Amino acid sequence: MYADRLHAVVRRLVDDDHDAEEVIQETFLRAWRAIDKFNGDSQFFTWLYRIGVNEASRRTARNRKRGPVVRLDDQVDPADDRPGPAQSVQHGDLRRVLEQAVRDLKPDYRAPLVLRDVEGLSTTQAADILGIGEAAFKSRLHRARLEVRSAIREYLPEDDHP
Amino acid sequence: MMREALLHPLRFAGDHRFTRAQASNYLEDELDAHSRERVEHHAHACPPCMRLLASLRRTVAALRTLRDGPSSSLPGVSESVLARLRDEPARDTGRDTGYAGG
Ligand SMILES: [Zn+2]
Known about the structure:
- The structure holds two protein chains of two kinds.
- By secondary structure, chain A is mostly helical.
- Chain A has seven helices and no strands.
- In chain A, helix 2 (17-33) crosses helix 3 (41-66), helix 3 (41-66) packs across helix 6 and helix 5 (107-118) runs antiparallel to helix 6 (123-130).
- Chain B is mostly helical.
- Chain B contains six helices and no strands.
- Chain B has helices at 3-7, 9-27, 33-45, 47-66, 77-86, 98-101.
- The chains are: A mainly alpha, B mainly alpha.
- The structure holds zinc ion (ZN).
- Zinc ion (ZN) binds at residues 16, 19, 42, 46, 48-49 of chain B.
- Chain B: InterPro entries: Anti_sigma_zinc_sf, Znf_put.
C-alpha cells in the first residue's frame, strides 16, 4: 500500500510524528492536484515518493534553522547502559541503536539508505526518486552503510567470514 | 597472512582501498568478474577487509528488519487531506474525470 510505505519512509526522514503527518498531507494534496498527469502506476509511485522525500528534506532543513529538536522520548545515552560486546544483546537493543544510527545520518545519506536498505526498493527506483544518478546513489548508500555499521558494530556478533 | 602486503605493498594498498570502496557493490553482486576476484583475493589476505565485508553484510541484513517494525500509524490524515481539498478553489469541470482518459 503506497500510503503506509510512504509514511514509513517520511517518518524516518523527519524529526517527529507531527512533521511526518504534515509532510504526508502536503504530498497527497500535491498528488491529487496533479493526478491527471499520470497514466502509469510506477511513474506515479516514483513521483509520489519524490514529493514526499523533497517535502521531508525541506521540513528538516527548516527545523535545523530553528535550532535543535529535543527528543525526550527516545534518546540514546552513549555513556550509560550499553551492554558490552561480551554480554548477550537483546534484539530490542540492536533495533533501538539501529534506529538511532539511521536518524543520526545526514539527510543526503539517510534517504538512500532508507529507500534501498529499509524499504527494499531497487537501486534504479530509489535513485530515480531522489533524482540522482545511480553512481552517486551507490556512493551515498555505501557511505551511509559504513556509518551505520560503525554505530552498531559492538552489537553485531564477531565473525570473520563474509 | 600479511605476506602479500610485504611483497607488494603498493598493490596491496590499492586493493585495500578498492575493497573498502566497493564493499557494498560486492555484497550486492554488482561487480564484474575481475573486480569481484580482486575483492575476494584481497579480503582473504587482509583480515580488516574480511571483517568489513562480514559486518557490512550483517548491517544491511539488520536494516532490512526495520521495515516490518512498529511504525506509528497515521491517524486522521485522510480526513485532514479531504478537509483541505474541500477548501480548495473549484477545479475545472471535467478535470476530475480526465484521469482515465489522460
Ligand atoms: Zn584490506
